[in-house]
Structure formats: structure tokens, C-alpha cells
Amino acid sequence: MTIFEAIVGVSVRYATVPLPLLLAIAEHESCFRQDALNDTGGDAKRGGAYGVFQITRTTAELYLGKLEDPNVLYDVVVGTDLACRIIAQDMVRFDKHIDDVICAYNSGKPKNRAPDITVFKYLPSVKAKYLKYRRLIDGRIKEPKELMVATKC
After folding, report:
1. Which CATH architecture has domain 3-139?
2. Residue ranges per domain, the chain?
3. How many alpha carbons lie under 13 Å from residue 90 in its C-beta half-sphere?
């Protein structure tokens, strides 16, 4: 199973999570790299952010309980499920306002509540990718592997 197939496969369980948004976040966070590790962020003392969706151990533990081994976050199915849970919760929290959902994924804050400076770069980048995937999926993408052709990392 490819990373794209895993993301699409998990996402169908979450009706409120737009697949284009999920793909945009995955592309921005890791360029779809399952082995991605950012050990310089706010959770660096606990290992950093892991996998395709760059989920920190602290965030994962909010949903999964205590993690004995944070390497489980490299698993694309586990990471996608967590990302979907986070996004689904934020879709409700922010009444489906995509910009706020994108900002909250990055910083935990919507764009209109004094986000940190990284959001000003994050939001336009992810939003552009979201619109790209929305056009592709709405128009001509039939198989998950076709998305790889449309992705430039």
C-alpha cells in the first residue's frame, strides 16, 4: 500500500475531513515522507514531530494515551488517523472555516486569535495546496496513485 492509498483509505472513515485538506497538510508537513522527523520544534524535548503529518508525542498522547514508543507515529495509518481526528475536531470547533482549521493544525489557534508568526507562512502555503488538491480531485483524479503525479515536493 502506498502512502497515498493509506491516506485515502483512512480518510473515508472521516466524512467531515476534506481529503484535499488532508493531502495539503501532508504535503506541506513532510512532502509525504513517512520517515520525516522535526526535532527542533516546541516538543523537541520529547522527540519532536513524527511522520507524514508531523504529529508530536504530546499531541498524540491527547488522543491515544501514554505512548511507550513514539516511533508508532511514523506509521502512516496511525498518523493519518490522528490527523483526521484533529482536523475533524477542528472542523466542528471552527464551523468548517478552512483557514482557521489550517492555522489550528499548525499552532492550535485560529487565524483571528493572534497566531504565532509561523502561521503567516503556513496558512498561504497549505491553502494553496488545498485548492490544488480540491481542483484535482473534483476534476480528474480517479485513483490515489494518480495524485503522486500531481505532487511536486
Report:
1. Orthogonal Bundle (1.10)
2. 3-139
3. 25
Specify whether the CB–CB gap between 64 and 38 falls below 8 A. no
Within 8 A by CB and 6+ apart from 152, the residues are none
Instruction: Convert the pLDDT of each residue in 89-111 to its tens digit.
Output: 999 999 999 998 998 898 765 55
Enter the pTM of the model. Answer: 0.86
Sheet (strand 49-50) strand order: 37-38, 49-50, 55-56
Amino acid at 104: A
The model's pLDDT over 12-67, given as tens digits with 9 standing for 90+, comes to 999 999 999 999 999 999 999 999 999 876 665 667 899 999 999 989 999 999 99
Phi, psi of 121 (to 5 degrees): -95, -35
- Tell me the sheet residues that pair with 37: 50
d(CA 55, CA 81): 11
